[in-house]
Each structure stands twice: as C-alpha cells, then as structure tokens.
Write a structure and sequence with these properties.
Number of strands: 14
Strand order of the largest sheet: 5-4-3-6-2-1-7
Strand content: 15-25%
Shape: globular
Radius of gyration: 23 Å
Helix content: 25-40%
Distance between the termini: 79 Å
Largest sheet: 7 strands, mixed
Order of helices and strands: HEEHEHEHEHEEHEEEEHHEHHHHEHEHH
Structural class: alpha/beta
Length: 370
C-alpha cells in the first residue's frame, strides 16, 4: 500500500507560496498550464551565466513578457501584456527592454497568452520587477526534481484565495505615545506570506460606526519621517484623533509602495529624483497606478466585529472597496499631512491622477500661516 503524506490544508496555495519563495530567490520555476509547461525566471537577477543556461534550454524559443505599463513606456499603446521573442537570451537587451528609461521596443510584440500572464502574476506576488523570461518546455522533457512546479490556475487564484484566509495569531496591549490604551492584533494572511496588524486605539464600541483607517505600510515615511510623502503624518494624526475621540481601529497593511514592495519603491524614488512623478516612475518599472487590494482589510474588520465604519481616508478606492466587501461606510473623513517642498508634487499627482480628495491649496495656505 502506498501512502501519501500531506500536512497542508490547502495544497494549491502552499505550492504557490513555495514558488514565490523560489522566484524571490532568483531561481527559475516551472508553471504547468492548460496548453503545456514553461520555465519562467524573473529579470532582476538575470546574469550572464543564467542567461547562457536558459538559452541552452530554450533553443531559440524563449521570450520576454512585459506588462502593458512597460510597453507604453517603450512606445506602444497597449492595454494588455505582450511578449517579445528572444532568439538569443541577451542579458543587456532584456535589461534595456524591461528597465532602462530610454529603452525602446526593437521587435514585434505579440499578445501575452495565459501562461505569460500567470508568469507575470507570479512576479507581482513575489514583489520583484514585473518582467519575466519564459521558456516553453517541449513535451516529455525531463525536469530536475529541485525545480519547483506550480499550476498556472493556482497562481491566478492565489490572491482571491488568500483574501479570506486570515487568522489572528497574536494580540496584546501596546501603549502608544498619546494613546496609552491601545491593542495590537496580528493577523496572518491577506497578502500571502505576510502579517497584517490591526491597532485598536481606545475602546471603540463596535456596535456603532467605528472610526477606521486602512494605512499601507511606508517604511520611509512612517519610521524615518521621509519628506517625500505624507504617510507618517497621516499615521500619527489618525492615532491622535482616535485617542482623543471615541477610539478607532487602524489597519496597518503590508503594502509597501502601493503594493509594489520596498525594492521597487526605492527604484521609483530614484526615478522621481530624475523628474518623474510617482505614477510615471511606477509605469517606467512596469506597474499600473496602484497594485493594492483592500478586500482582505474588510475581512479583518469583520473578524473584529465591525460592520459600520467612519472611514478616515483621502482615497476613493478604499471607500469603494469596503463598500463592495459588505461593510457600511457611514461617512468618510480626510486625513491630511504637512505639505513640504519635497512632497508637493507627490500630493499633486495623487490628487490629479488618482482622484484623491486632497485640498492642496488649503493645506499650503495653512502651512504658510504657521
């Protein structure tokens, strides 16, 4: 009798999480799709040695998959991802097409197929640059046991599955400056291999509408006081307001750089120092305006017994997301930081390009009075 041992409650999500760890470690992954299998590797750590190995396997059939945002920067008006043939896996050419500011398309671009899209999604889940080299594998080819394999369907369904796979793993009182009665509640899940934190400030009555803020983590602003954004001000102003009123809940979400990850955020900062605004910088890197999802935040609130919220945000997407998830948004309130010479262009871009509710002129007038 042959016994199969599995200690995983959900083998599909487990296999994707293993693939994410491999991809983040710059190791190739095999994706099994409906039309066959392919070896996929991210472009971030593509060096000469790995390029040569991939070329030997590919036999002239590799291709580079780029998202629509990057294709637009390369001079093509595209709404969806595309693929560029790589007869030779040339590291320099791949880098130019995937990352260089002055890169331009140099070959025909075909629409991406299902597996190409699955490879891009794996890159996004791994918080690496959204550009991948894909090598279709001939039927019957022998794959080394050390290579992680994952179903393309599982990659596509991962975010949706993890949105509801949230559980509280720890909680404890943590007195804060200006908010001595606060509790940290740590959830696991929601965005995959990450922890999310709910900070309960004061003693909010969850039978009534509760003041709530969804705050995406910002290492540079929240911790180091970066002048390039208003995130740290928003964080501290929210906690202060909740402590001085009837309490509230701040969800501190691991969504650095609008969901792109800290490495890509710093890449975008470098581009901003060269004159790009925050959204153009992300587009150069291949990202659309905002990669974040907030459906799991609604699950966290429901787990804490919250059904009605007074949402503290400038972002209309957060209001829409909580409403769509079944929470009743009774009202929404602005949370404004200090305008600085370094963040005015950032605030302007959020207002003009993403529709954030920011009265920049009023903020500047108040700042000048001070």
């Amino acid at each position: 009798m042959r016994l199969t041992l599995s200690l995983s409650d959900n083998p599909a999500t487990t296999s994707v999480e293993r693939a994410i760890m491999e991809f983040r470690s710059a190791r190739p992954v095999v994706i099994d799709g409906t039309e066959g299998s392919a070896l996929v590797v991210g472009v971030e750590d593509l060096d000469e040695a790995l390029s040569a190995e991939i070329e030997a396997i590919a036999g002239g059939h590799a291709h580079l998959v780029l998202p629509a945002a990057r294709l637009r920067r390369l001079g093509l008006d595209r709404e969806g991802p595309g693929r560029v043939a790589l007869p030779v896996v040339d590291r320099s050419r791949v880098e130019t097409l995937a990352l260089k500011v002055d890169g331009r398309i140099d070959a025909p671009v075909r629409p991406a197929d299902e597996m190409d899209n699955e490879a891009l999604e794996l890159a996004r889940l791994s918080l690496v640059l959204p550009a991948v080299v894909v090598v279709p594998l001939a039927q019957g080819i022998e794959i080394a046991p050390s290579l992680v394999r994952v179903s393309g369907a599982d990659v596509r369904g991962y975010r949706r599955a993890k949105a509801t796979e949230l559980k509280i793993v720890s909680r404890a009182p943590v007195p804060l400056e200006g908010a001595p009665t606060s509790e940290f509640v740590v959830f696991r899940g929601g965005e995959g291999l990450r922890d999310q934190v709910a900070i309960i400030v004061g003693k909010p009555d969850v039978s009534k509408p509760v003041a709530v803020r969804l705050h995406s983590a910002c290492l540079t602003g929240d911790l180091f006081g970066s002048l390039k954004c208003d995130c740290g001000d928003q964080l501290r102003e929210t906690v202060r307001f909740m402590a001085q009123s009837e309490g509230g809940i701040l969800l501190y979400l691991d969504q650095e750089g609008r969901g792109n990850g800290i490495a890509n955020k710093i890449r975008a900062y470098k581009l901003q120092s060269q004159g790009y605004d925050t959204y153009d910088a992300d587009e150069v890197l291949g990202f659309e305006a905002d990669q974040r999802r907030f459906d799991f935040a609604a699950v966290m609130l429901k787990e804490l017994g919250v059904g009605k919220v007074r949402l503290m945000t400038n972002n209309p997407e957060k209001i829409a997301a909580l409403t769509k998830a079944g929470l009743e948004v009774i009202s929404d309130h602005r949370v404004l930081g200090r305008p600085t010479a370094e963040n005015v262009s950032y605030l302007t871009a959020k207002r003009d390009r993403a529709g954030h509710y920011i009265d920049l002129e009023g903020m500047l007038a108040c700042s000048n009075k001070d």
